[in-house]
Amino acid sequence: MRYPKECILKECEEATIRPLEKSDEKLLRRFYEQTSEADRWYLRSDVSDPHFIEKRLQSIDSGTAASIVGICHGAIIGIGTLFQRTFGATRHIGQFRIIVLPAYRQKRLGTWLLLDLIQLSMDKGLEALRTDLVVDVEDPAIEAVTKFDFFKEATLQNYVKDPAGNYHDLVIMIKRLHRGWSDY
User: Which whole-number Å values give the CA distances from 168 to 102, 137, 141, in the listed order?
Assistant: First the structure.
């Protein structure tokens, strides 16, 4: 894919999409500092841990994680990361996570990031793409990925706890990838 990409968000605001770079450390720290504690709660890693940013930037060359960022006014406003195992029975399946700052949600930034992650997955030869989402917390994301032909593979009932200790279902969403799909 060609980067950087200029995209127009709702309300005619411009953003740039490009791969995360090792020089983005300060921008990435600022992004995660602006991410609410409620949003951070459902992530797999503690993004407030100072070593997390270092590990994420080191993973750029490892082939196990590829991140694409949305930038507006010189700041990261969203990030999509594709995780891929390099060995084993599930190395043909990618898993992704997208986080967008609240001020930029419902403006199509997540859609732009998702489209690039799907294309990146196909470019890597993956056969399927997976995301795990929390019911009643991430319902807009569930609705959004469904529009891109993701389907519910499984629902793990009462699987995750919110910060208040309430249980929520976790839905595993899958998209089968087709090699013939071209860049949009």
Answer: 22, 8, 15
